[in-house]
Write the structure tokens for this entry.
Amino acid sequence: MDKPQDDPDVVDAEIVDETPTAAPAIPSPPLPDPDYSEGGVPSFDFVRDKIENRYTTSLGATDLAGLGTENTAEALDKKIADRDQAAKDRLAEIRRSMRGE
């Protein structure tokens, strides 16, 4: 008869104790998104930024849609500069009214 080490069907192995040596790690709860409260309510800054982003995206899409017509890049640059100046003027007016001038 063949010896066990000569038999190719015999696998040499050792018996391992199945009791765990350490308790499994408990995953920590996920941290809340910094833009949301613990209750899942978005912050004012997060909502404002999202609205401003959508608004500027829509303005850009409207401006780009008009590029194929009489609008040129120079005309759009002037329109943007005029809009920025109007915003600065309005902000200055609001600040003056708050100071009581």
About this structure: Residues 19 and 51 are 56 Å apart (CA to CA). The radius of gyration is 35 Å. The helical segments are 44-65, 73-99. Residues 41-69 form one domain.
